[in-house]
Request: fold
Amino acid sequence: MGLRAKITDGIKDAMREKDQVRLSTLRLINAAVKDQDIAARGKGNADGVDDSEVLAILAKMVKQRQESARVYEEGGRLELAEQEQAEIAVIEEYLPRQLTGAETEAAVDAAITETGASSIRDMGRVMGVLKGKYAGRMDFGAVGPMVKSRLG
Reply:
């Protein structure tokens, strides 16, 4: 079952269970995916976005909500921060399991070997391979410095 089908099924289940937080979050996900579909069609891709792009959308949504929750907590708006955390929990159900530190290091080493990277100028190719294989499964903000230190 594709990721879109899982999201659609999740929406139906949330409607049956009358789970408003889950329902609104899944509808936001669905809207974001449809927006990307429309943008992809404008670029000549009639099929829209695939599962790897949906994963990237979900990862971006989690990152946005984590930042919002942090800002709300700093501003003393704990009820809004809790709402963001609840949305993160729903979104993460559709993301694959995150790689551990050791798995991330092994993936970085494998990507460097695979691309034949030898200097910092090859960092873009290494990151491209990692994003292709591990979209939604690792924090690329933390991986970038790791790749840079290994190539530098």
